[in-house]
Design goal:
CATH topology: Arc Repressor Mutant, subunit A
Strand order of the largest sheet: 2-1-5
Order of helices and strands: EHEHHHHEEE
Structural class: alpha/beta
Number of strands: 5
Amino acid sequence: MDRNIRVELREAEESAQEFVKAWRRAEAGEPVEEPVDRLYFQDLGGLLQALTPRRLELLRKLHDGGPESVRSLAKKLTRDYKNVYHDVQALERVGLINRTADKRLSAPWDRVVAEIRLAA
């Protein structure tokens, strides 16, 4: 089964309201919705800053090759270690890269699904 993460633009208040609604449904004993991995950005600039073409390439390479170190990932990408290290840090901060128990990098997603709403 594919593991996807939805990337959306959403204001902090809107995200907080979604959380409160889910909490209230749970308190009322209503059925819980199927969990969906999500990543919200407040604006398009933040999304594009986090998901640059080089970082997307890094995610693909990491996903295809399986867990590995920053050094081996930099070699596979034929990029400078320092630049790959900074990209890895940025992707870890937003939750698109994880570390395994032995500290190797992992990209658990099969798909990053971006949704940008044009109208409010």
